[in-house]
Design a protein that fits this description.
0% strand, globular
């Protein structure tokens, strides 16, 4: 999502796997890309001991707190802790999250994190749920049965067991849901406050992210990655991106053709995600599902194009990720946050008529060039479709 946060994602991935490095995963990268990745990796790996030095005491303080949310936070610090130290193992962190879930049965955020982000080696959180389901699923559904995403584990369990009735029942609950809330913004606010409360750790991480990417200018005082930006980056791990819906709703080539009833329910689920999802991931999933079902939604396709345009426009500006993150947490809606920031910076909210997503940046002169090209084409008798074949393609094929 964020240009500079991309380096932070690399930071998180390397910390999870450090000190191991997998060269095979980058076999298809170009030589330039590989050089960049290697430079970033070296800078990050050299900085890890300092992160571990700062984060270790923070983890211990959270672990001995009396607040379940502190235990939840400690369980999610794996990207900041020495992976070779048994004091921070997945088993230890899973125990903290199990304890948090048990101590705060009515805290929807704690329950959500326990369901979606249980550390590895944690095993089951309890024994009340059927095998294959999160052990706190009953608690999650008790607290937010109106949240369509809360039914994804139930749908997954039915799908894995080839339970057609179970899949239909879960889909029906999702189609009737009043919310599609992945709790990313809720968790991001907690994480942002955590980073704000630990400025030394925040400054160290910001310095690493900036220095890891040689394309970024040297960091100046006050130019740090914000607590809100780090919060959103880290919170996205609790979002259960609903790819499973594509398989359940006819995307599995080995499954039987969709029955009319399930097709209609799946279409309702797609529309709910489009209308109620607050992140681009959920809206993209809803639109993908709708297209898979052979249906169109002009408004949703226009919104998807607008999102791609806003991404290409605003993230060329320095430090815009901090502004977008702050506005996202204020408004609770990613695309609205991008729209607000673009407007505040005097950037156009809509693309030129022939703009396509593969264009990576916006140049104010493009509008004038488009007008000149259009006039030249008209003089030559060339149609829009001849000048740009993709302009005649259906919207989903164009972006």
């Amino acid at each position: 999502m964020f240009t500079r946060i991309a380096a932070g994602v690399l930071l998180a991935l390397l910390m999870d796997a450090a000190p191991a490095q997998d060269a095979a995963a980058a076999e298809d990268a170009t030589a330039v890309e590989m050089e960049l990745v290697i430079a970033e990796a070296k800078a990050i790996l050299q900085s890890l001991p300092r992160v571990y030095e700062i984060a270790g005491p923070v983890f211990r303080d959270l672990s001995v707190s009396t607040a379940p949310r502190d235990w939840m936070l400690a369980s999610q610090l794996q990207t900041l802790l020495d992976p070779l130290d048994p004091a921070y193992s997945g088993k230890v962190r899973a125990e903290l999250l199990r304890n948090a879930a048990a101590a705060a049965p009515d805290d929807a955020l704690v329950q959500w994190v326990a369901m979606t982000a249980m550390p590895g080696d944690g095993g089951k959180v309890g024994c009340a749920a059927p095998a294959g389901l999160p052990a706190n699923i009953d608690n999650v559904l008790r607290l937010e049965s109106d949240n369509g995403l809360a039914w994804l584990p139930v749908l997954s369990h039915a799908y894995q067991n080839d339970d057609a009735l179970g899949m239909d029942a879960a889909l029906a609950r999702m189609a009737a849901a009043e919310r599609f809330d992945d709790h990313v913004d809720d968790f991001a606010k907690v994480l942002a406050q955590f980073h704000a409360d630990h400025p030394q750790l925040l400054q160290t991480l910001s310095k690493i992210v900036r220095e890891a990417d040689p394309r970024q200018p040297p960091q100046e005082p006050g130019d740090e990655v914000s607590a809100e930006a780090f919060g959103i980056m880290e919170a996205e791990r609790v979002s259960p991106y609903p790819l499973l819906l594509l398989s359940v709703c006819g995307g599995d080539p080995q499954s039987t053709p969709l029955q009319p009833t399930r097709r209609a329910i799946c279409a309702d689920v797609a529309q709910r995600m489009l209308r109620l999802g607050k992140s681009s991931d959920l809206q993209t999933a809803g639109l993908s599902l709708l297209h898979q079902l052979g249906e169109r939604d002009t408004a949703a396709e226009a919104a998807a194009r607008e999102y791609q345009w806003l991404t290409s426009v605003i993230f060329q500006s320095p430090d815009v990720d901090n502004d977008v993150a702050a506005e996202w947490l204020r408004s609770g809606n990613e695309q609205q946050a991008m729209r607000t920031v673009a407007q505040a910076r005097g950037l156009p909210l809509t693309p030129p008529p022939f703009w396509q997503p593969e264009e990576l940046s916006y140049d104010p002169d493009d509008d004038a060039l488009d007008a000149d090209e259009e006039a030249a084409d008209a003089a030559a008798g060339e149609t829009d479709a001849e000048a740009d074949p993709s302009a005649a393609a259906p919207p989903d094929e164009r972006f």
